[in-house]
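Please complete every field before forwarding. Incomplete forms are returned to the sender.

SECTION A: IDENTIFIERS
Entry label: holo-339
Bound molecule: NAP
Molecule representation: SMILES string

SECTION B: INPUTS
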Amino acid sequence: MKAIVLDKTGGPEKLIISEVNTPVPGPGEVGVRVHYAGINYAEILSRKGLYGWAPKRPYILGMEASGVIEELGEGVDKSRLGQDVMVGTKTGAYAEKIVIPQNQAIPSPEGFSMEESAAFLVNYMTAWVSLFTMANTQPGETVLITAAAGGVGTAAVQLAGANGCRVYGMAGSEKKIDFIKSLGAKDAFNYRLSNCFEALLSQTNGVDVALETVGGDVFKRSLNSLNPFGRIVVAGFASLDLKKWNPYSWYKTWRDLPGADIRIISQKSVAVMSCHIGYLMEEEPKKMEANYGELKDFVLKHNIKPIVGKVFSFEDACDAHRYIESRKSTGKVLLSLVD
Ligand SMILES: NC(=O)c1ccc[n+]([C@@H]2O[C@H](COP(=O)([O-])OP(=O)(O)OC[C@H]3O[C@@H](n4cnc5c(N)ncnc54)[C@H](OP(=O)(O)O)[C@@H]3O)[C@@H](O)[C@H]2O)c1
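SECTION C: PREDICTED COMPLEX
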């Protein structure tokens, strides 16, 4: 089968399709014919050799996909054959076929297209766990989402909005500002403009919850925008640009990593939290299953559908990575493995 194997780190040109052995499901596993692979920022970091949760190379890139179960391992219920599923995995989704334990092939939510199914698991679970399980976000609270036009960001804007929160977004271009407002955010601000946090505070008098994925100054100013009893959840730091052979970039990375001084945050009684759904899936599978159940019920009740920004062909995976790195993408970016 065709797959994108990461054996050396580097630029998008490392994403080369090669021919590998087609995997066969063992006991308790299923084989899924991949229709769409969802691209995550983590895979860009993995490609650069900067992702802590990545396994040892070589491996097939890709943490999520949608497709159809076409093969069953021993002991798997026959009714699963032909089921439309979403796949959540550590590796293996940039491929024509993936073999995973049967509980990692989750039936697609009712009414979701194959594209939407490939855009759901990682972004929505990250947003759900951050906003609700960790920050306990309540209706009526003021919520700030950074990188709000991206995959996790659009999911968070939708979920917090449907929960009755006053949602504010931040992003890196004027085009994205309009897009975030079209998703129901009360307002949105461009953090490439120096007065963006002043503009946020003049409208809100402070935020109760922030979901932060950019790092550096955006993290610091988001933390400073919290009201007493506020919570900030750090789920990423996309602006950090560690270059292994450049000591100045080590300093900048160290300086810009989110962190907090207990003496300062205690003066305002705010909480700084962080989550990673990959580690949680490994450490707390039962709790994550329960979280997924709550999330699925919530999106079906509020008729929320994932926003797919752009679909690239499998052969153009390098362009898809370049597109996300250019900061022009909105919503989820997918690779198509169907004609
Ligand atoms: N903790 C978890 O379990 C978990 C799970 C999934 C994702 N994440 C994190 O959540 C964030 C969003 O992930 P995603 O897959 O949905 O990606 P994405 O938001 O679709 O794309 C990344 C966005 O980050 C922003 N960004 C800020 N500085 C950047 C820079 N120097 N280079 C590139 N992008 C920059 C860009 O938006 P602007 O131009 O608007 O700033 C860009 O669109 C990432 O930080 C990712 O690592 C965490």
